[in-house]
Amino acid sequence: MSKTLNLIKTNASNPKVWIVAGITVAGIIVVAETRRRRKKAMIIKREDFGAFMERFELIPFPQPPPPAAELPLSGLTFAIKDIFDVKGHATGFGNPDWQRTHEVADKTAVVVTALLKNGAKCVGKTVMDELAFGITGENKHYGTPTNPNMPSNVPGGSSSGSAVAVAAELVDFALGTDTIGCVRVPASFCGILGFRPSHGAVSTIGVLPNSQSLDAIGWFARDPSILHRVGNVLLQLKAVEPRRGRHLVFADDLFQLSKVPKQKTVHVISKAVEKLSGYQLPKHVNFCQFIASNVPSLKGFCQHSTNLQNGISALQALSSAMVSLQRYEFKTNHEEWLKDFKPRLGPEVSRCVLAAINNTYEKVKSLYKVRTEMRAAMQSLLKDDGVLVIPTIADPPLKLKKGSSTEFHDRACALLSVASMSGCCQVSVPLGEHDGCPISVSFVTYHGADKFLLDTVLDMYASLQEQVSMASNSAPLPDLNGNMDASELLKEKGNAAFKGKQWNKAVNYYTEAIKLNGTNATYYNNRAAAYLELGCFQQAEEDCNKAISLDKKNVKAYLRRGTARDSLLCYKEALEDFKHALVLEPQNKVANLAEKRLRKLVS
């Protein structure tokens, strides 16, 4: 520094020296200030789990004077996703370039004002996936909010910060938006309640759109009574409504996508409603076959050479239509801005945006037709008192910075497309843990039945949590093994039933054979083949696992397990099975074709 001062003294009359000195000093100040702000931001981030973009307070409207009743949300605090307008603040949409190129809002979003009018206090805006694209919750610009239950895993998105703020008990409830799962996924991953209302039921004025035909305002809470109170305000519901009977409809085929044992999901819910009044005996449906028969326009979105009635192909077609609709409307809404400003985007979001902008959309009318048919199909299935029960998401939260695979995305979107494409209301409900990960199920009912669904959650929640506790403390159901008496005869009867295309009968015979002799790989392998014909892919996979554990060179077991996993959209695992089959039998044509197709999908 002394050399610098001597240089200035020597050349004091030279104005260029003073300019250089000024710039140097200014640079030092800027660097110091940047470091100070980063340090402060890191401290704040540690305190709030990285959930908040911006902290501020919007004071609720004053309480009415007595004897008027207290405002329904009095004393509650909430946070909002950085997609809602707040007067005097720039809405960031999860991206600094968006925030930089847009003016501050001159009005506050209708939904935020409604909450303030009813006594709640807003304490800030939360982090989100850029442009509301993505379901992992990661943001390269502002960091990824920390999942309070699993700090090494993603919180889910795109409403990640709002979910984390609730899960970490920083607020009583929070607002998000849900396009293709942006409330439901983070609710599931963070172990809290997440509600997606019927499409159009809550005003989106003052909310940035991603895809207006799919966007819905959603909210998170830890307590079902708060979820219910917020719903009453936002949906402008009547305080009292006559109690109605209910019947649960389990989508058995969709639970095959989940890796959580049914003992912790379907069994828990079934036992919970046994103790409650007003619930009919649960029904069970093959949901994919139902929509394949009732949503004819899906045929236009089915993969070539795939029959809609096979496995979950109908749901894959629905998911494909949903993603196409989102991308088409996103392009319509934001293409001009993207081309004018060329924003910096994270790699995952950049891929989604490029796909949206570069695609040509030839089936636009069909997209909206699928949506209309899907809503009518759900009304037909559920009538006035039905509640569809499905897994919220197929897989546990991904590890941070791992990136989402095609497999993860496809399996997630298959389940998330049900409510998004029908416009029905859905609530994700936590059901404890499995292998250290939060698990959840979702209840879905027909469009416009939001109060009915909120009432159902409030009614069932305590009984559900009681059953969750009991299930977590109980041992898994044991396998039944027996002697070899008559097992071969039963196997032959099973084979005869299989050849006669009597799949259920074949399963029953093979099952009896397994009870007598549980160490014969052929029995499990044959039953797996029958399960595949029935579309029971999870059971087929389990039987193949057992067959392979008993006979590691069983080519048919690898082929059948690969087929089951492929049908469950577990592409990487299926690929490994077909590779293994080719090692054992290099000329196997089925394995060879499947291996080539899956290698393209995985890459």
Notes on the structure:
It is a single chain. By secondary structure, the protein is an alpha/beta fold. The protein folds into two domains: 419 residues, Amidase signature (AS) enzymes (Alpha-Beta Complex), CATH 3.90.1300; 123 residues, Serine Threonine Protein Phosphatase 5, Tetratricopeptide repeat, CATH 1.25.40.10. Helices cover 50% and strands 11% of the residues. It has 22 helices and eleven strands. The protein has an eleven-stranded mixed sheet with strand order 1-3-2-4-6-5-10-11-9-7-8, with helices on both faces. Strand 10 and strand 11 form a beta hairpin. The longest helix has 34 residues. InterPro entries: Amidase_dom, AS_sf, TPR-like_helical_dom_sf, TPR_rpt. This is Amidase domain-containing protein. Keywords: Membrane, TPR repeat, Transmembrane, Transmembrane helix. Pfam families: Amidase (PF01425), TPR_1 (PF00515).
